[in-house]
Amino acid sequence: MKREQWGSKYGFILAAMGSAIGLGNLVRYPSVVYENGAGAFLIPYFVALFTAGIPILFLEYSLGHKYRGAGPWVYQRLSKKWEWLGWWQSIVAFVILSYYMVILGWALSYTYYSFGSQWGEDTESFFFNNYLGVTEGVGVLGGIQWKVLIPVAILWAVLFWVLHRGAKRGIEWASKFMIPILVAMIVLITIRGLTLEGAIKGLEAYFTPDFAALSKPEVWINAYGQVFFTLSVGFCTMITYASYLPKRSDLANSGFIVALSNCSFEFFAAIGIFSALGFLATQQGVEVGEVVAGTLGMSFVVFPQIINQFPGLNSLFGVMFFVSLLFAGFTSAVSLAEPGIAAIREKFGLSRKAAVNWLCGASVLMSLLYVFKGGLYFLDIVDYFINNYGIVVSAILMVVLTGWVSKQVDSLQKHINDVSIVRIGGWWPAIIRFITPLSLAAMVLWNIYNEWMMTYGGYPQWSVNVFGWGLLAVVIILGALIQQRRWATEPSPHKEEVSS
Ligand code: PFF
User: Fold this and answer.
1) pLDDT per residue over 214-245, tens digit each?
2) Could you tell me if the CB of 443 is within 6 A of ligand 1?
3) Is 80 exposed, middle or buried (0-12, 13-18, 19+ CB in 10 A)?
C-alpha cells in the first residue's frame, strides 16, 4: 500500500499543532492551573514537560518516521508481542473522540446562542437544565436530547468529509485553514481581555504562586496529565502523523516548534481568559476564586456570564470565543481519529474510505451515549479514567518497551540525528530509560492508592466499575484480541525521496 504523505513540511507542522492545540489549551489549562497552585503550577508543569512530554513527543516522531506505520504496526516491529499496546493507545484516542465531538457539538450550539446572549442571566441553569437537560443521577438515562444531537451530527458529517479526503487534502487543509484564524481570534480576545476593567485582578490570580501546593502529590499528577493531553502524546497520534512524513524531514526541529508553540499558545490564551475572569469578578464584586470553574463549567457557564457583562460587541466576542473552541477542537478531533483509521487500514488492508466509515461509524454510536440527558455523568467518568490511567499507564509501557525491552532508544536517537539539523544529545535516551518511567510510575501508584480510598466523584460504585475500570479492561482485551489476527498488508518502507 502506498503511504499517504503531507504536502509540505509546514503542512505537517500545522497538522501537529492542530492536534496539540485544542480544548486542553483553551479550557482545561486555565482551570487546572488555578486549582493547582496558580503561578506555582508552572514548576511541576515544566518538570512534566521536560521529563515526559517533550521526550515522548520525540519518541513518537522517531517511531512513526522510522517504522512508517501507525501505532500497532510500529510496536510489533519493536517486539512481536507488543502490538496490543498500539491498539490500546489508538482505542483510547477513539474513546476520547466520541465525547470530544459531543463537547464540540455544545460549542457549536453556543456559537448560535451567542447571538443576543440567548442563555439569559442564569447561565448555569441554562447549561445544565435547559440545554443538556441533565437527569438527577447517573442511574437515570433520560431521553435523547435533540438540542445536543443535532449539532453533534452536523460536526460528525464535517469530520467524515475531512477524513475521507485524506492526510494532505483533508487534515492538512483543515489545519492550514483553521489554525491561523484561531490564533488571530485568540490574540484579539486576549488583547480585549487585557483592556477590561479588573483584568489585573485576574492576572494576579493566574500568577500569584501558592508554593504550599507543590507539596501535594496530586498537583504533580495533574501537571503530567495536562502535559500529555495538551501535547497529544501517548495516543499514537504523533506516531501516525510522523509516518506520513517524507524520508528527509527535520524531526528535532519540528518537535521543538510544535511543543513550543503549543505551550506558549496555552500560556498566552490563559492570560486573556484570566483577564476576563478578573473582569467578571470585578463586575460581581467577588474574588476571582469564586468565578473560576472546572473545565466544562468554565466554557459553558462562566464564559457566557462574561459575555453578558461585556461592555460592547457581546455577540461578536461570544461567537469568536466559541468558534475558537470549535476550530481548536476540530483539528484535535481529526487527530484522535487518525491513529485508529491508519491502524485498521494497515491491519485489515482497508481503503481509507472504508477505514473512515468503520471507525467513525463505531465512534458515532459511542457518541450517542452522551447525547442522552444523563450522558454528562458517563462523559465525566469515562474522561477521568481514560485520561488518568489509560494514557499514563500506556506511556510507561511505551518507554519501557523502547528503552528496555527492544532497547531501540539509542538507534532512534541516531535516526533523529541522521535526518535533523538540530542534534539531540545523550540526555534523551537517558530520560526515556530512567526518568520518564520512574516519574510516571510514582504518579500512577499514588493515583491508584487514592482511588482505593474513595470512589471517584462520589458516583455509585457500579457506574465507576462499568464506565471506568470496565471500559479500561475492554480496551486492553480488545487490543489483545486484534493482535491475534494476521496482518493483511505491510506498511510500505520509505521509497520516495520527496523533498520537503
Ligand atoms: N491535545 C488536544 C487538546 O489539547 O485538546 C487533545 C488531544 C488531541 C489529545 C489528540 C490526544 C490526541 F491524540
Assistant:
1) 888 788 888 988 999 999 999 999 999 999 99
2) no
3) exposed
